[in-house]
């Protein structure tokens, strides 16, 4: 897969057999050998991961990547990110790797139409799930964490693209390794290290990216910034303390204070989810949520919108000036391929909802354009057979 990418550099993540000797090349005007390689493995697994780093590239060129073994070669196409004021990207969450007959069509569909990049925004790997028996695992170990990543990597059509696109990811509870997990999870550090290895986020070296605490990081593409927050590693028990932890909150506020562009804040579980009984920042700790959202709204002079997953339904919420200084939106995208549930909007109506769909696999397409004081565009929820489940035009502006 292609991971961290800017206008002049990119990173690739290669999964291979540990004993397999591979050589890597990229094509500009001639084939050139890639020598910047970092390898990661476990003693109890026959799978290894390698990160390839390339720099000195141009966003105006098309490139090829060649992976060569003693008996075979695999060639993929790739580009870097172009600096511009508008992006077309796709976001998805909740992706179970069992049942390929239903997984493959929706994922192949998502990857078959043009996009600038993909955002996987949580529950991208169900660590605590057996995809063959289709049951939850009673226990998770460091080996299971590693093995479940390798199994998902083998299963997802997203990782077999001929024309590579950058994939940026964050987690929620299932790829963290524990259902509704928090900072007390026994293997939190093992899980954090594995996620960064498999999604190319180890020691990010790019002018447009910045590492934050835990799994948090930010990516700046053109005139938009994408801030990925870690909603598990620092999380307190429900009803207590903090959702993101003081260190991450401070990092986020400093980032927004120094931002020069509009931002998307991306979080694994819902933010304004106080209307339902399931996990959300607002529902789990309403007073702290209100306080931190007030700080976020005041931290940046540029508009902020929100993108979340987890809920096994997709919806668009309009967040009022009462809740966030100026009108903004929260887009929830879920599930791409996971168990379907009734929305429960009849029992737990969402007063902020302006679009919503449940009981179907789907992903969202976001077309977003921005300038200094405004971010506008359109969000579409797309289901099987390319059915448009809903669409909504949005505008977020600090000048009301």
Write a concise keyword list for the protein shown above.
Purple Acid Phosphatase, chain A, domain 2, eight-stranded mixed beta sheet, 19% helix, alpha+beta, single chain, 400 residues, six-stranded mixed beta sheet, 24 strands, 33% strand
- What is the CATH topology assignment? Purple Acid Phosphatase, chain A, domain 2
Helix percentage: 10-25%
What is the count of structural domains?
A: 1
Number of helices: 8
Structure summary, number of beta strands: 24
Radius of gyration over all CA atoms, rounded = 20 Å
Termini separation:
41 Å
Report on the biggest sheet: 8 strands, mixed
- Average residue pLDDT: 96
Side-by-side strand order of the widest sheet: 14-15-16-17-18-20-19-21
The CATH top-level class label: Alpha Beta
From the spread of the alpha carbons, the general shape counts as globular
Report the portion of residues in β strands. 25-35%
Structural class by helix and strand composition:
alpha+beta
What is the annotated CATH architecture? Answer: 4-Layer Sandwich
CATH superfamily: Alkaline phosphatase D (PhoD)
Low-pLDDT regions: none
């Amino acid at each position: 897969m292609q991971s961290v990418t800017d206008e002049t550099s990119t990173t690739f993540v290669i999964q291979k057999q540990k004993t397999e000797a591979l050589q890597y090349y990229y094509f500009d005007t001639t084939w050139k050998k890639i020598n910047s390689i970092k390898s990661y493995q476990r003693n109890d697994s026959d799978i290894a991961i390698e990160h390839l780093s390339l720099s000195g590239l141009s966003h105006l060129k098309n490139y090829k990547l060649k992976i060569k073994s003693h008996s075979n070669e695999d060639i993929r196409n790739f580009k870097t990110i172009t600096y511009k004021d508008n992006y077309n990207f796709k976001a998805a969450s909740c992706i179970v790797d069992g049942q390929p007959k239903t997984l493959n069509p929706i994922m192949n569909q998502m990857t078959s139409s043009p996009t600038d990049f993909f955002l996987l925004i949580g529950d991208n790997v169900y660590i605590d799930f057996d995809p063959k028996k289709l049951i939850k695992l009673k226990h998770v170990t460091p080996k299971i964490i590693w093995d479940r990543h390798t199994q998902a990597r083998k299963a997802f059509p997203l990782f077999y693209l001929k024309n590579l696109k950058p994939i940026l990811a964050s987690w929620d509870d299932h790829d963290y390794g524990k259902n509704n997990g928090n900072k007390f999870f026994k293997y939190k550090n093992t899980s954090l290290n594995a996620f960064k290895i498999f999604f190319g986020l180890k020691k990010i070296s790019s002018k447009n990216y910045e590492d934050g605490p835990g799994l948090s990081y930010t990516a700046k593409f053109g005139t938009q910034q994408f801030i990925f927050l870690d909603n598990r590693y620092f999380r307190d028990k429900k009803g207590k303390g903090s959702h993101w932890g003081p260190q991450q909150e401070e990092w986020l506020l400093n980032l927004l204070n120094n931002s020069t562009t509009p931002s998307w804040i991306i979080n694994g579980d819902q933010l304004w989810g106080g209307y339902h009984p399931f996990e959300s920042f607002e529902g789990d700790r309403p007073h702290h949520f209100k306080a931190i959202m007030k700080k976020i709204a005041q931290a940046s002079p540029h508009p902020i919108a929100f993108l979340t997953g987890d809920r096994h339904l997709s919806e668009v919420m309009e967040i009022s000036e009462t809740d966030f200084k100026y009108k903004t939106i929260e887009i929830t995208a879920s599930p791409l391929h996971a168990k379907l549930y009734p929305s429960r909007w009849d029992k737990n109506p969402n007063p902020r909802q302006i679009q919503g769909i449940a009981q179907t696999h789907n992903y969202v397409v976001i077309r977003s354009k921005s300038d200094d004081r405004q971010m506008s565009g359109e969000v579409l929820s797309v289901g099987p057979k390319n059915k448009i489940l809903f669409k909504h035009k949005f505008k977020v502006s600090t000048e009301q």
